């Protein structure tokens, strides 16, 4: 979710920015002004999903990303100590889903400016030079968040994060269609139902989400893991079926929890991998904050370190949506489509005739169908789960009704 664009030309240092601030997590909203709740409800205690002491600043940061900073804002911050927010800047130009080339340049310039400033501060401290009042404040903020010596290396920890308030709000609305079904799936596997909220972190409940790492669907499975838990081939990709993928996510998380016996670790494995978190546990046990702080496993970067904190923040906001989004949330109508397991292959045209529904009705409901199937060039394979509208006509001869989930 972080920004890693490589723009080259510097933008004006002051253009479109809030006042530069270096404050604790209690003051992260100073420049945001994006409609967050004034009376922030406390994090709800949870036996399954505790908020470990030492992770509070991370959760607070992500709550601000989800609820206060819109996509017109970019936050320059320390990637290890999330209480340290250097600047909340207004993006110049038209605000779209992705940065414009000029915005990439602008964000790159902001990061470089702060890195240069921090390198200068580090040099002055190393030389035991007298610091200005502003430099003392900067040093004090870093040390309050990261302890003595936190200023050293801070120039390499500068990161940018775009706000996603609008995206999270849209995810809340989309979640209305799926949450009841997802909760039912996790309950059936004997897992905490609030795991159904994980797509707020992964995809904002967008069924067609795709990542640069090759993950697809609402639950963001990569192809190799997807094949372990569902059908993924040249005709059917169940990573794109939110319900099939939720079932796969439940089985993955159940397996991870059975091996790790700790939900912060099991959830982090969803991002970092089970093997990596088992190695982390071997070194640090279930001291999750120490793992976040000290584990140096390969690929255990910013996303993995923050995955559990993001989930805690997303869960908290979803359970208190009316406080964070006073403009209201129009939840989508719950899923009422019916799953049918096909005993024999059939083309989309044959299925449309058998169920007496337009072909488009089937293709828009069966998101796992890839182009060869949805175009009619290949039949829907036997054993595939077909989603049909509630109340569709009785199944034609040769097919049998049976709930797939």
What are the key terms here?
Lysozyme, Membrane-bound Lytic Murein Transglycosylase D, Chain A, 405 residues, alpha+beta, two-stranded antiparallel sheet, 15 helices, 3 domains
Task: Give an overview in words.
- The chain has 405 residues and is an alpha+beta fold.
- The chain is 43% helix and 7% strand.
- It has 15 helices and 6 strands.
- It has helices at residues 56-67, 101-126, 133-146, 165-188, 199-202, 223-229, 242-260, 263-272, 274-284, 288-294, 302-319, 321-324, 348-355, 359-365, 371-374; strands at residues 2-3, 73-78, 85-90, 158-162, 338-341, 385-388.
- The strands form 2 sheets. A 4-stranded antiparallel sheet has the order 1-4-2-3, covered by helices on one side. Strands 5-6 form a two-stranded antiparallel ribbon.
- A hairpin with a 6-residue loop joins strand 2 and strand 3 (85-90).
- It is elongated, with a radius of gyration of 24 Å.
- Residues 1-37 and 400-405 have low confidence and may be disordered.
How are the elements arranged and paired?
Blueprint: E1 2-3, H1 56-67, E2 73-78, E3 85-90, H2 101-126, H3 133-146, E4 158-162, H4 165-188, H5 199-202, H6 223-229, H7 242-260, H8 263-272, H9 274-284, H10 288-294, H11 302-319, H12 321-324, E5 338-341, H13 348-355, H14 359-365, H15 371-374, E6 385-388
Antiparallel strand pairs: 1-4, 2-3, 2-4, 5-6
Shape: elongated
Q: What is the strand content?
A: 5-15%
The percent range for helix content is 40-55%
Tell me the span between the first and last alpha carbons.
31 Å
* H and E string: EHEEHHEHHHHHHHHHEHHHE
The CATH architecture term of the largest domain is Orthogonal Bundle
Number of helices: 15
Query: Biggest sheet: strands, sense, closure?
Result: 4 strands, antiparallel
Give the CATH topology of the largest domain.
Lysozyme
Pick out the low-confidence regions: 1-37, 400-405
What strand order characterises the main sheet? 1-4-2-3
- Helix/strand structural class: alpha+beta
- Rg to the nearest angstrom? 24 Å
Q: Could you tell me the mean pLDDT?
A: 89
Could you give the count of β-strands? 6
Total individual domains: 3
The CATH class assignment of the largest domain is Mainly Alpha
